[in-house]
Amino acid sequence: MFIGICGSICAGKRTIARYLVDHHGFTQLYLGSGPSSGADDAVDGVTPPSNSSLSNTSDSPNDQHTFSTPDDLLDFVTKRWRERWVTTDIPSEPVLDLYTRRPFFLLLSVDAPLTVRWRRFQARQTHLLSSTTTTGPKETPETLETFVALSDAHLYNPTTGTHPLLARATVRLLNTSPSLAHLYATLGKLDLLNPDRLRPSWDSYFMSLASLAAQRSNCMKRRVGCVVVRDKRVISTGYNGTPRGLRNCGEGGCGRCNSGDGSSGGGLATCLCIHAEENALLEAGRERLRDGAVLYCDTCPCRTCSIKIVQVGVGEVVYSQGYSMDGETAAVFREAGVKLRQFVPPANGLIHLEKPELST
C-alpha cells in the first residue's frame, strides 16, 4: 500500500504521515534532499514536547528512502507494493497522475480553517523563537497578512498550487483536532487501511453501480437505483420514474410525486412511478434471475417491491440507505427466506476529524 498525503500549510499532513509510521508500520519516502521542516507539526497551537517523535519530522532518512525523481520513487514502491509506504511529497498534478496509475496508491488530503492553521503557525513560531540562541538578531514573527499570502500562494498558485491535489483525494480530512491525542484517537477510528479504498469490494462495486443508475432517475420524490446480479455478473439495472411513453415525473407526469407531500411512503397507490427494483426485475425477467440472484439497491425496497422480489426468486437484497418501511420489508423477506442486509462502505470524501462518532 502506498499512501500520498497533500494538504494546506499547518493542516497536519506530516503529523498524519508520522501517525502512519508510528502506529501502522509505514515507511516514509521523500523526493529531493529529504524531509523539510515540520511546519504542520503543531496542532491547534500545541507544539509536541522536544523529546516527542512528533517534535521533529525531519529525522534523517535512510538514503534508500530519498529519491531524485517521482519515477524512481514509484519504481521502488512498485517492486515492494505489499509493504506500507507513505509520502507527503506530491509536488504537482503530473506527479499525482503518475502515482494514481498504480492500484495500490491512495491519496489523502488534509485541511483546516484558516484561523486554526494560523494559530498552529503562531505556536510553531513561538516554539522556534524560544528555542533559538540569544546571540544574533531575533527572528521577526510573521503577521496574519503574511501567513494568508503564504497560504494562498501554496494553495492557488497557477503553476505550483496544491488545491487541485486536495480536490482529487479519495479521503479528505478536515483537521480541527484540539490535540495530538484527539487527532490520533480519531484517525484510529477511520480504518484508513481498509482495502476497499484501493479496490472496491463486490458490495462496493455493485452499490456504486446502483447509485450511478439512480442518477438517471426523473422522480421528483426520491432518486433510487438498483442492480441485479448473479454470479457477480450484472443481469439488469433500473431506476425509478414514470413508465415508457408517459410524461416524465420531473416534467409533471406523476401528480403524487409533484404534489409536494413530504410524507415518506404515503399515497403509493396513486403514484405513477415504477420503482427502481421493479424496472430492474422487469428488465431481467424471471428466467434470467433463477436461484442465487442478488439485488443491490441504494435505498431499502418498499413492501410492494419486496413482494415482487420474493416472487421472482431473488435470494439476497443488499441496500445502503434506510426507508420508512424497512420493518415491513424485513418481515416479508424473513418469512420468504430472503437474506436482507445493509452495506456500509468505509468513510470516504470529506471527514471532519472533530466528529469521530460519524466514522465508527
TrEMBL record:
Protein name per the record: Deoxycytidylate deaminase
Listed Pfam families: dCMP_cyt_deam_1 (PF00383)
One term under GO cellular component: cytoplasm
GO-annotated molecular function: dCMP deaminase activity; zinc ion binding
GO terms for biological process, alphabetical: nucleotide biosynthetic process
Highest rank taxon of the organism: Eukaryota
Cofactor(s) annotated in UniProt: Zn(2+)
Region named Disordered: 38-69
Family to which the UniProt record says this protein belongs: Belongs to the cytidine and deoxycytidylate deaminase family.
Organism: Parachaetomium inaequale
